[in-house]
Design brief:
Layout: H1 28-32, H2 42-61, H3 69-84, H4 96-108, H5 117-134
Helix pairs in contact: 2-3, 2-5, 4-5
Length: 137
């Protein structure tokens, strides 16, 4: 099983099996910079960056449905899975998934908490920073 923001690298999804990261006070753009240059095909860059920009817009616009970081992570993983269907991107860019998940877990944490306005704003910034890094900006 691959590591993800929902499960630890051992496949466990229990909070006890994962490290606790509860706050983020750094530069999200700087953290996301590790994603630059991983995706190289122009069509894949367009698809992946547009997905992250549009997901950021959905999260920013929503005020009633996504109420916790767990709901946000679950929604993101499901939307990403749907976006990747019938593409050749899965497994095409080694390291991208882990680097992206690292950015999101650093910003969102791994323990489910209420999605406050501040945490929502950080999530939106993270998704936009990922999109920019994919475009090598």
């Amino acid at each position: 099983m691959a590591c993800s923001v929902l499960a630890g690298c051992d496949g466990s999804s229990s909070p006890e099996s994962r490290p606790r990261i509860t706050t983020f006070s750094g530069d999200i753009q700087e953290v996301a910079a590790s994603l630059r240059g991983i995706i190289t095909d122009p069509q894949d860059i367009a698809l992946a960056s547009r997905f992250h920009d549009e997901f950021a817009e959905v999260v920013e616009r929503d005020k009633d449905i996504i109420t916790s970081t767990e709901m946000l992570r679950t929604g993101y993983v499901r939307a990403e899975t749907l976006m990747l269907q019938r593409t050749d991107m899965v497994g095409k860019y080694p390291g991208f998934g882990a680097a992206k998940d690292g950015v999101l877990s650093l910003v969102l944490g791994l323990v489910s908490v209420q999605l406050t306005d501040a945490k929502r704003a950080d999530a939106v910034k993270a998704f936009r920073a990922i999109a920019k890094a994919i475009r090598n900006e």
